[in-house]
Every structure is written in structure tokens, then in C-alpha cells.
Design brief:
The chain has two domains: 191 residues, no CATH class; 140 residues, GMP Synthetase, Chain A, domain 3 (2-Layer Sandwich). It has 362 residues and is an alpha/beta fold. The termini are far apart. The protein has eleven helices and 14 strands. The mean pLDDT is 88. An eight-stranded mixed β-sheet has the order 4-3-2-6-7-8-9-10. The chain has a four-stranded mixed β-sheet with strand order 11-12-13-14, with helices on both faces. A two-stranded parallel ribbon has the order 1-5. A hairpin with a 2-residue loop joins strand 11 and strand 12.
Length: 362
């Protein structure tokens, strides 16, 4: 009998608690899927931020319509308040997929003050994507990309390039971790509008003190990922005298080793496995495979060293050498890491490429 009373009491408490939850009907709210930030073009509004929200309007048996609302303000919360004055329904952030920053804004003003409210908002997940726009965020958001809505297109574009191409893993959580982690520099992918129906991932932007200080091209992204992430499925083309090969199904891992303390020296071991999917020569022989492996190793060594030198020149450390040194040397001081110590760090590469088999031959 006592157990019955206990069960009834628990049920009553559950019903009371569920009754306290605020109800929101989907047809009566606007679910923001993306928000973009630009500089104001008006001279009279110098220092103002243009915020653009993107939300879908769902219709029966039709793709969702992409709707945008724009307002100007000094801070992100004020932007949403200003946009709310234009909206017939409440604006909700619980469906956010991506936040976009114009490159001009991210370079001149920085993004930290704009990102901060998102990490404090319990309705926003840490898997939220962040991206820089090579151009205006508002213009990018006003296109028409795919049948699932623009925000979903942007997030799928980034997710696909993480899974199958050369973009290292990135999201709000990883950006903030790298920013607050001493000895490591945060980065974001860069998107560019090609037309009203096409968007291109055209590089990676690196930040220092919340502002963009350096950008790498899509051609450099492959080698950057070898240094900071692993490949589970990739593609790279290698040229030798006998022909050109497309090496697919690339899998890679990297490992850092502290090989000297005075002067400080780090060796990066990079192991790459792949198969030849296409080859423009006549026949894939063991000699050809050996030549491809050596050329690929040479290319990795040269291009990765160029990247590291460019990071030193810009006084950033997106690879995380400083964080690695902190884990290897007790009481290691990172105060002047990117400005001084990183410049003197000797980095050696040990690439090891294995081509397991050959596929289609042209």
C-alpha cells in the first residue's frame, strides 16, 4: 500500500513539473537557424554591427522558404532585440546551426564579443558551427542553396568537408577550447558566395586576440589537417615523371616527439596510408608506387614546413606546439610563446607514406 502512495506522489510531482515548462508552438515562433554579422555601411553608424537572422518558413509538400530579418546595433543581444521589433512572432535560438562573420568585421573588430553570448546561451549547443565569410554575411545568407534551407546547406557543407575533405574538426566548443588553451591558436573555415545558388569553402582563417591575422588557401588545407587532425577518408594528387596519381581513401595520424631541449626541437611523425584510385601513366608497377610514396613524403615535408614558417611569421600557433611543450616540460612558461619562443623552435618532419594497392587505371 505504501508503494502505491509513493508512486502516486511521484506521478503528481511529475505532472506539476511538466506543467511549469513553457510551451512554444512551432507555427507561432521563428526558429533562428543562422545569424550573420557585418560592419554597418552607413558613415553615420560607425561602429555599429549589422545582424541578419535566417529562419525557415515551412510549407506543405514544398521546400522551406529562407527568410531573413536585419537590424543594426552595438552588441549581439541588442541586434536580436531590434529584429524582434520587426517580427510578428517570438524569435528563438534553440535551432541554431551556424554563426557567420564577415571577414572585414572579424579582421578589424574581432569576434570574441559576438561569440561570448552564444557560449552563455543554454539554448545553443556547443556543436554550433562558426565560419568567416569572404564578403558580406548578409549577402551570403540571402541566396538560395538546396532544398533543405540555407543554414542546413552551410552546416552540411562544413560537415562534409570535415568528414571527406581537408577541413579539420571545428565548432564553437573547439574554437573556445583553442582560444582559452595556452599555446594554441583558434581557427574557422572561410566561406565565399560564388552565385545565388553556390557557396565555396575557400580557406581557413586564424585568429589572434579574437581577430583574423592569417588565412590559408584550400591547397594548403590538406597539409594543415595532417598536422592538427587525422584523416579517415581523403584525396590528394601526386605527380611524378611517369604520370599523375589520385591517391584516395587516405588515412593519417600524427605524433609529436620532444627530441631536444637545448635548443628546443620537436619532431612530427606523420603516417599516411592510401590507395591509387586513378593513374595517368601506362602501368602501376612497384617502382611507380615507390616513386609516388617518396614524392608524396617530399611534398608533405616541404609544404608542412612552409605552413609552420608562415605561422611563425604571423606569431600564431594553430598546431599547438606550445601546448605540447607545456605537457612535456615541467613549469614551462608560455607567456611569450608565439612572440619569442616559437620563433626559435626547431621543427622536424618525418613523413611515412604507404600506398597499399591500386584501383582504376586510366
Amino acid at each position: 500500500m505504501k508503494s502505491i502512495y509513493t508512486a502516486i506522489s511521484i506521478l503528481c510531482i511529475y505532472l506539476l513539473l511538466t506543467g511549469c515548462v513553457k510551451k512554444e508552438i512551432l507555427d507561432e515562433i521563428y526558429l533562428i537557424e543562422s545569424i550573420g554579422f557585418d560592419h554597418s555601411k552607413e558613415k553615420s553608424n560607425k561602429g555599429m554591427i549589422v545582424g541578419t537572422i535566417l529562419y525557415p518558413i515551412y510549407q506543405p509538400d514544398q521546400p522551406p522558404k529562407n527568410k531573413t530579418l536585419t537590424a543594426e546595433a552595438h552588441i549581439k543581444k541588442s541586434v536580436l532585440q531590434e529584429i524582434q521589433l520587426q517580427s510578428a512572432n517570438p524569435i528563438v535560438t534553440g535551432s541554431m546551426e551556424i554563426v557567420l562573420f564577415s571577414k572585414e568585421l572579424a579582421t578589424n573588430e574581432g569576434v570574441l564579443e559576438l561569440i561570448d553570448p552564444f557560449q552563455r546561451d543554454p539554448a545553443v549547443g556547443s556543436g554550433l558551427y562558426l565560419a568567416v565569410v569572404d564578403g558580406e554575411a548578409k549577402e551570403l545568407m540571402e541566396g538560395n542553396y538546396g532544398i533543405r534551407g540555407n543554414a542546413t546547406y552551410f552546416s552540411n557543407l562544413i560537415e562534409n568537408n570535415i568528414k571527406n575533405e581537408d577541413l579539420p574538426k571545428t565548432n564553437l566548443h573547439k574554437f573556445l577550447f583553442s582560444y582559452y588553451q595556452k599555446g594554441q591558436t583558434p581557427f574557422m573555415p572561410q566561406l565565399k558566395r560564388i552565385s545565388k545558388e553556390k557557396v565555396l569553402l575557400n580557406g581557413i582563417c586564424f585568429f589572434k586576440h579574437g581577430k583574423i591575422v592569417h588565412t590559408i588557401s584550400p591547397q594548403e588545407m590538406f597539409f594543415f589537417r595532417l598536422l592538427v587532425d587525422k584523416y579517415s577518408n581523403g584525396l590528394h594528387r601526386v605527380k611524378i615523371d611517369e604520370g599523375e596519381a589520385a591517391i584516395r581513401s587516405i588515412r593519417s595520424v600524427h605524433r609529436f616527439k620532444l627530441t631536444n631541449r637545448f635548443p628546443k626541437e620537436v619532431t612530427v611523425q606523420i603516417k599516411v596510408h592510401g590507395i591509387i584510385n586513378e593513374y595517368t601513366g601506362t602501368k602501376v608497377t612497384p617502382k611507380v608506387i615507390d616513386s609516388l610514396q617518396k614524392e608524396f613524403e617530399k611534398e608533405i615535408d616541404e609544404e608542412c614546413k612552409k605552413l609552420i614558417e608562415s605561422f611563425k611569421e604571423n606569431k600564431i600557433d594553430p598546431i599547438g606546439f606550445g601546448h605540447f611543450m607545456k605537457t612535456q616540460i615541467r613549469n614551462f612558461d608560455l607567456t611569450d610563446w608565439t612572440d619569442s619562443q616559437f620563433q626559435n623552435l626547431i621543427v622536424k618532419l618525418e613523413p611515412d607514406v604507404t600506398i597499399a594497392e591500386a584501383g582504376v587505371i586510366e
